[in-house]
Amino acid sequence: MRIMGRPRVLVAVLAACLLLAGCGSGPSQVRAAFLMGDREVTQDQVQQLIDKAVREQPAAQQLAQQHKLDQLGRAIVSQLVVHELVTRAAQREGLTVDDTLVSQTLAQDPLATPVSTTGVDPSQLPGQIAYRVRDHREAITDQVLMRALAQKYFDKMSVTFDYTSVVSDDGGAQPASMREKAFAKAEQMAANPGAAAQVIQADNAAGQQTSVGERVPAVQAPDLAATVVFGVQPGTVIAFQPSTEQAAWIVAVIRQRDLTTPQSVDQATEPTASQLVAVGQRLLQPYVGDAGLKVNPRYGVWDPVAMDVAASAAETTGAVVSVKGSVQP
C-alpha cells in the first residue's frame, strides 16, 4: 500500500493536520503540572504559555473574559504530555524526523495566523490556541513523528474484540445516564476473565446489539484505528461512544491486538494524513502506563479514551478497565 505522496502535497496535508487536530494521587512535586518518569513539566511552564496566549491570541482573550482559561491549561498540558510520549516512542521505535518536511511545513507555518474567534467549534479553540503558543517546530515535529509511527504499523494492525452496546431504548435516556450504564457494564465485564462472555450472552438474548470475535484490520477502518479499540492490550474492557451524534455506547473486551502481521484484505482504505496522525497518537497509549504519567489535579485527570486531559473523572469520554485475573502482555 502506497502512503507517501509528493513532498509539496505532503507539506500541505501536514499543515492541515495541525489546523484540524483536536487532537489517583497527584504528582509528588507540588510545582509539577505533570510527571512522566523522571521528566517534570512545571505549572510555571504551563502558565507562561497561557500568559503568552492571552497576550497574542484574541481567542485566548475571549476565553479569559469568559473565565475559561482552565480549558486552555488542559489543552496545553494535553499537548505537552503527547509531546513527551511521542519523544519516548520515537527513541524506542528508532523513528527519525524528516527535517526537510518539518522545515518545508514551517516555511508556510500554518500556526502563524491567530485562531479565528468566529466560525470555529468552541471545543476546538483551546487546542488550536495551544498549538500556536508552543514552539512551532516542536508542534510540527510531533505531527511528523506520529505520522511516521502510524506508517510503520498501519498495514499490520488488527484487533479482535467482543462487544455489547448501551442504546437509548428506555424512553430517551439522557447522555449522562447512558454513560453511567456503559461504565457500570464495563466494570461488570471486567470482574473476572469469564464475565464479559456472560454479559454479552445475556445482552444478546435480550436483543441488544452484540458481537463475538469481531476482527478489524486498520486498513479497513482508519477512523476506528485511531480509537481506544486499537490502543489497549488484550484483557482490557473499554467503554466509549463511537459518535457524539448518536446516543449509543460500545462496551468491548479486547481479545487480541496484533501489530506485526501484514493484513491482506479485499478492500483497503487509503488513510489521509490526518487519520495517520490520529492513529500515531493512539499508538502512544501504551506508553502512558509505562511512563507512569501523573497529572496534577489542578488541571484534571488523564482521559485514556480521548488521549487528553479531562476536567475531572466525571467528564472523561470513556472507561478503560483491566479484566481482573487476566494476564496482559
UniProtKB/TrEMBL annotation:
Coiled-coil positions: none
Domain of life: Bacteria
SUPFAM superfamilies cross-referenced by the UniProt entry: Triger factor/SurA peptide-binding domain-like (SSF109998)
One protein family per Pfam: SurA_N_3
Keywords: Signal
Residue stretches spanning the membrane: none
Signal sequence, renumbered to the chain: 1-32
PROSITE patterns per UniProt: PROKAR_LIPOPROTEIN
Descriptive protein name: PpiC domain-containing protein
Species this protein is from: Amycolatopsis acidiphila
